[in-house]
Each structure stands twice: as structure tokens, then as C-alpha cells.
Amino acid sequence: MAVPMKPGITLKLFLAILAASVAAAAAMALATRYSFQSGFLGYLTQVETQRLDALQAALAEEYRQKGSWERVRGDYTRLREIAISSAQVPPLLTLLDASQRLVAGNPEIPAGATVRPVVVESQTVGWIARAPLRRFSSAAEERFQQQQLRASWIIAGLALVMAALVAVVLARVFLQPLKRVAAATHRLAAGRYDTRVAVGSRDELGRLAEDFNRLAESLERNETLRRRFMADVSHELRTPLTVLSGELEALEDGVRPLSRESLASLRGEVNALAKLVNDLNQLALADVGALAYRKETVDIAPLVQQAIESHRERVAERGLALEASLDQGALVFADADRLQQMFRNLLENAARYTDRGGRVRVALRRADGQVAIEFDDTAPGVPSEALPHLFERFYRVEGSRSRANGGTGLGLSICRSIAAAHGGDIAASASPLGGLRVSVTLPVAQ
């Protein structure tokens, strides 16, 4: 059984605009009809009132000439002649004397009739009554009314046709950007992350297109990072595994004797592999917000000092001098173990990538509600174009700070995650000592 197609948004918008236009046109036609009927009838009533005024004057003159109503009494023909000759009033009239007794005309005066006095020399000598005008009284007036009403319906029909045309145009104009975004969304969902939408306006539809483009850029960037991350992980895992495989084959083939030195080499590769897996696990936990933090208010200076003392021998083995300048009494709300981990990573990074005979300097200072910890080392430095990428995963600067010096390329990424978890920041810049400066800023505990 075929499933009936549901109307699209274009048809819905067209029908909505058309329905609103039909309602507006019908209301306009009805209002025009009512306004015309009441207005035109009022106009005719006003004209009849003016004619009654003229008839009053004619009847007053008739009474003045004869001194009584004897000439008119009971003679409706005479009353009609006076009415027609004076103001062309149709003969639907009643003439009463001063005592409101019938002189001529219709003896039954309907409710709502217009009654006017006939005054001669400031004395009321009679009354003229005119039945209320409730309908059009002539064929010409009826035809005029019908013509006007017919014209109003024709205008309403033309307005509906124009409204339909405008509805079609508006539906297309308004929905074209949405259709472009919908089509682009389908392409994006299919994995085409280079999809972009042209922004043609600054209204809500334009902002929707801009948001879509930002989403596409973010997905494209994340996909690029994911692919690069997978390639880097596979490469980093391949290296120690290849070394382990080669050394084990050499031991099996008898090329290399089983000795303490060969076992130490194997253990070194296993430790490197374990460190890489542990670093990856740390980053994965940080990404999902599952890295455990037990924060409390701590003095950061002793933590930095402990990290320095734990690396003093390591730095000395590299032939480097280690200097420290630490302000005391800088309190932060932090996890002491995680901060120690970050400081040790930064010290290890400085010791590994500084030429023998150089020096490493650690400074801690407090200013403007923040604690700044700076790790400076001597040459070699880092090219300025590489500084923004140092905290990316598996990123290594070619040359002096390369894989040959060891490390997984994840230490600085872990440091960035730890700093961010404490509401702080970490940045790299050129050091005044000629090498690299890594600056960590943390908010002072309130």
C-alpha cells in the first residue's frame, strides 16, 4: 500500500499566506459592503432631511397665503404637488395641523418618523411627518448599490489572485535558504564535512546559515584531528612494538644473547609503551570529564618546590642548572596531585629539550588575583609558527625538539587539560633565556 505524501513546507506556507489573504479579503469585502450600505443610506437620509427643510418652507408659504390649511385639507394630491415642486420629495408624507390633527397624507405615522414643525411668523401652524428611510427608494439607487457591491466583490477576487501570486513568491523566497540548509545538512550527515552554505542575508535565516557553516567547520576540524590522532597513535604504538618484535626475533634466532642488557632494553620499550597507553588514558578521561580531581585550598609554592626537588637529579644528569624564584603564600583551590603532575611534565619537557650546559628557571609570582608559574629554558628555542601547536596531541617540533629526544608528545596536552580543569590557562612563548617559556596561570583561592 502506497504511503500518501505529506504536504511540504512550501505548500504549507503558501496555504497559510493564502488563507490569511482570503480572510483579509473577505473581511474587507464585508466591511466595504456594510460601510457602503450604512454610509449611502445615511447620505440619502441627509438628502431627504434637506428636502424636508425645503418642504417646510413651501408649506409655511402655503399657509401664509391662505391663512389656513383649507386648500390642502384632505387633498393629498395638493400636498404631493407642493412636495414635488419644492424639493422633489417622494409623496410618503403626512401633514398635521397645529393641534396635530390630520390634514392630508398617511394617517398612520410609523415609529421613528421624522416630524418637523411648519412655522409661520414664529408660530407653529402645522407639522410635516416623513416616514423613516429604511431602504433605497428608487430603481437608480438600487442599481447603484448593486454596482458598488459587485465592484467590491470583483476587487476582493482580484486581491485574492494577487495574494496567491504573492504567496507563491514569498514561499519560494523565504524557503529557498531553508532548502539550501536542508540539502547541505543531508550532505553533512553523509560525511561531506567540507559542505558550506552561502549566507545571503543578515536575518534569522542568515544567522542559521552562519551557524551551519560554523558547525560544518567544527566537524571538519574534529574529523581532521580524529584522523590525525588515529594516525599518530598507530605510529606511536608501532615504534615500540616494532622494536620489541625485532629484539625478540634476535633473541630467538640467537643473533643477540639473552642477557641483563637485552632484558633492560626490552623493559625500556615496554615502559615507553605503558607510558604512552597511560597518557592516552589520561587524555581520554580528561575529554569526557572523568579525570578525578580532589580539590582543596593549597599553597602552590611548596608544590612547585617539591616538583623541582624531584627533578633536580634528572636536570643535573642532563648537565643543566636549575634555578627557582618562588613567592610564598599563593593559595589556590586545586588538586595537589594533578598540579604536581603538571609541574613534573613541564620540568621534564624543559630538561629533555634543552642543550647540555644550559639552564632551567622556574618562577612563581602572584598578581591581579592570579598565580603565574613560568618555566623558562635556554636554547634551542621553538619557531614562532610552532608555538600555537605545542599543546596539540602528538605534536613535535622538527629539529632539536623532535622524537629523537623521546617522549610521547602528549605531556603538554595533559598539562593543558589539567590547567583548564582548574579554571586556569597555559601558553607557550619565546623565553628571554633563548629557549621556550611555558606560562601557567591559576586563579587565587577566594
Description:
With 446 residues, the chain is an alpha+beta fold. The chain is 55% helix and 16% strand. A five-stranded mixed β-sheet has the order 6-8-9-11-10. A four-stranded antiparallel β-sheet has the order 2-1-4-3, covered by helices on one side. A two-stranded antiparallel ribbon has the order 5-7. The chain contains eight helices and eleven strands. The protein is rod-shaped, with a radius of gyration of 51 Å. The model is unreliable at 399-404 (pLDDT under 50).
Annotated CATH architecture of the largest domain: 2-Layer Sandwich
Radius of gyration: 51 Å
Q: How would you name the oligomeric state of the polypeptide chains in this document?
A: single chain
Text of the CATH class of the largest domain: Alpha Beta
Q: Helical residue percent?
A: 40-55%
Mean pLDDT: 79
Order of helices and strands: HHEEEEHHHEHEEHEEHEE
Q: Which fold name corresponds to the CATH topology of the largest domain? A: Heat Shock Protein 90
Q: Which structural class matches the secondary elements?
A: alpha+beta
Largest sheet: 5 strands, mixed
Classify the beta-strand content into a percent band: 15-25%
* CATH homologous superfamily placement of the largest domain: Histidine kinase-like ATPase, C-terminal domain
Strand order of the largest sheet: 6-8-9-11-10
Which regions have little confidence, pLDDT < 50, spanning 5+ residues? 399-404
How many DSSP-defined strands?
Answer: 11
How many individual domains? Answer: 3
| Terminal Cα span | 70 Å
Given the structure, what is the number of helices? Answer: 8
